[in-house]
Design brief:
The chain is 81% helix and 0% strand. The protein contains eleven helices and no strands. The longest helix has 52 residues.
């Protein structure tokens, strides 16, 4: 569970509701037709703009924002260095058993390609293609959320226009102008909340999670190709350390000293 996402969304909701409560009657912000216009209209337009499969996977898309896997980059480097040491001592075929025990499908596939004697250029091409397709899928998922962020405020304005038209039809009743204007504006409020409090932050979190996953896979590719080339494990480690932040590099070195 991504605590930052949960805490951030909860804090936003609490602050907005607190502002509504402090400002007066909370029920003034509740209008069922406005909710239907914004949510129904936005989702209908988003479904029109995207393949139906992407809408079916909406729950999975949101899961990536709120339940992101923690990637242990230091542990991954240590694993690859240990593979380099074993391959240098016993040969690449000795890694076949280790590959079968890996949980990460991408890394397991990478090791298996090397063990099978696949040409290094072909290994790199296959893995780079898989990373590219993963990045494209992530970009499409982000685009779906971006569509909600773009269309939510638009349908909020559309609902406001509908409310204003209805209000202007009752100009002969001055007492109805104030409530009518409030209902018209609350639709814009819903559209803004949908975009700025939910969709845009989720889109940004998806970008960050995608970048982290892609960096991790690029690290794997670099390590696997170095192992296949028979490079010294110390050289492999130094090559992989460039993927880490200075703080994480220090933690890796401190872990080696303790060991």
């Amino acid at each position: 569970m991504d605590l930052a996402s949960i805490i951030g969304l909860s804090a936003s909701i609490i602050v907005v509701i607190w502002g509504m409560v402090m400002g007066g009657d909370v029920m003034a912000f509740v209008d069922v037709p406005s909710i239907l216009i914004v949510l129904g209209g936005t989702m209908g337009a988003v479904m029109l703009a995207n393949p139906i499969e992407r809408t079916k996977n909406l729950a999975q898309i949101l899961k990536h924002a709120f339940v992101s896997e923690q990637i242990d980059m230091i542990g991954l480097i240590q694993t690859l260095v240990s593979f380099a040491e074993k391959a240098r001592r016993e040969g690449l075929l000795a890694l076949e058993e280790d590959a079968g025990q890996l949980d990460d499908e991408f890394m397991r596939k990478s090791i298996q390609l090397v063990v099978d004697g696949t040409d290094p250029e072909l290994v790199k091409s296959i893995l780079d293609t898989e990373i590219g397709l993963l990045e494209e899928r992530h970009s499409n998922n982000k685009g779906y959320v971006d569509s909600v962020a773009e269309l939510g405020p638009a349908f909020g304005m559309l609902g406001t226009l509908i409310g204003l038209i209805q209000m202007l039809g009752n100009l002969d009743d001055p007492s109805a102008l104030g409530p009518g204007m409030a209902v018209a504006l609350v639709t814009t409020f819903y559209g803004s909340v949908l975009a700025n409090m939910i969709s845009i932050p989720i889109s940004k979190k998806l970008v960050q999670n995608s970048s982290r996953e892609i960096l991790c896979r690029e690290l794997m590719v670099e390590g696997i190709l170095s192992i296949q080339a028979g490079e010294n494990p110390r050289i492999v480690e130094e090559k992989l350390k460039v993927f880490l932040s200075p703080k994480m590099r220090k933690l890796l070195d401190e872990g080696k000293e303790e060991a």
